[in-house]
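The following record pairs a protein chain with its ligand, SN-glycerol-3-phosphate.
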Amino acid sequence: MTLVVAHRGASVQAPENTMEAFRLAVEAGADAIELNVHLSQDGQLAVIHDDTVDRTTDGVGAIQGFSMDGLRRFDAGARFTNAAGEMPFAGQGLRIPTLGEVLEWLPDGVGLVVEIKVRGAAPTVVEALREHPVRQQGRASVISFDEAAIDEAHALDPELPTGYLLVPSQPLEPALRWAVEKGHQAVHPWDGDLGMDPAPALAQAMAYGRQLGCYVVNDPDRMKHLAVYGLWGFVTDVPDVARATLGPRAD
Ligand code: G3P
């Protein structure tokens, strides 16, 4: 079964990396939620993609320049525009969540993929997940483009699955070899690098005993195609479309 992983939540329906986007992703039947974490000035895990608040909130400045309380003063719905060109979440009180807040809410049975955006966040992420049912049930993983971040997460908790994110055009085979050497369970290339026929990449991943995910898949035909080939999972901005395409979530 190919997992539907909601990219920053249901990020076409609601502002990315907000509780509303996560809630809608679960409602749509996503198997897991993917989110991004940075460290605030006071060492808390802020759930936000960029290293500044500029693109997604009404604030300006670097994440690390604010305490978590400071970050939470910004409106995380201020910049989101829906398909109809409206801004329905501006001024509605959406805030930048903490990882703790997401973990407290996360419904039982829904997976969590935490993408570490700053190297120094690895120990705090590992500790936040350690006692949580999502990790105990094997539904949590930590991923990063930064090799050192996932190496550190793996060293701190070898039972916590880790995944290596590849930048576009990064060759797959050396990445698979590296993942085996370092004990990372999965490799996640950009979908465009899998090519029209994903079978050779999947065969390679299988030969190295690694799971193969990919980012970001929003086209229903492509979703179907990848699922037929038995990809581990893909991240998507439209978990509702993925569910309608692949059928209901298996519990
Ligand atoms: O699954 C993570 C993938 O989406 C990486 O890209 O830009 O969302 O960090 P980005």
